[in-house]
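Before drawing any conclusions, I needed to go through one protein's amino acid sequence and its C-alpha cells, quoted below without any editing.
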Amino acid sequence: MPTLLPGSSASATPHTDARRLHRPRWTHPRAVTGAALVAVCMLLGGLLVTNVAKTTEVWAVSADVRAGEPVRPGDLERVDVRLDPVASGAYLDEPDADSLSERLSGAAWARDLAAGELVPVAAVAGETVVSGVEVPLQVTGTAMPADLGPGHRVDVWVAAEQPSAGTRSEAARRVIDDVAVVAVHGDGSAFGEGSVRSVVVLVEDERGEVLPRALAALAGGSATLVRRMGPSA
C-alpha cells in the first residue's frame, strides 16, 4: 500500500490532472473571433484616417479672371484639396511652375473665375494661331471700361465730332466687331477721366475691307470701346 506524504491528499491528483486538460482561455473560439474583429476594425479605421487626411495639389486662381484674357501663370497658386481620383483629373494639376507655363503658353480663359476658385481643365482654352494687324486707337478715359486690359474683347464704335450749328448729328456706328485688346497704354487716373489712352486692338481683315472703312470713320469721330462679356464666338 502506497505511503502518503505529510500534507498531501489522495484526491489532489485527479483535480490537478483535470485542470491540466482544460483549453487555455486565449485559444477559445470566441476569444479568437473577438481578437480578429478588433484587428480588422483597427485596420479599417487606419485606412479611413489615411484616406481622409490625403490631399491633392491642384492650381487655383489668386485673383479674378475673365473669359478671353490670356492665362498668366503668375495669376495661379498651388493649393492642397481633398478630391477623389476621378474629380482631381478635372482640374489643373501640373507638378511645378515650369510645366504649368509650358502647358498654358498662348492659352486664354474660356470662362470667368473668381479668386480662390480651382482651375478646371475646361476653363482653359487651347492655344490658337493669332493673325491680323495691330491697330492703335486713341480713346478717352470715359469712352472705355476703366479696367480694360489685354485679352479683353471689344467692339469699336465711332461717334461723329460735335456737329456745327444747324446740322444734324450722325448716330454712332460700330466700325469694328469683336476684336482682342493687345495692349493698353497710359494711366487713366493720371490726368482724370478726360485723359486720352492708347489702346491697341488686333484686327483680322483678310479681304482688306474692314480696316479702310474703320480708319476713315475714326478720322472724323471719336472712338468708344464696348467690352464683350463671356467667351468670344
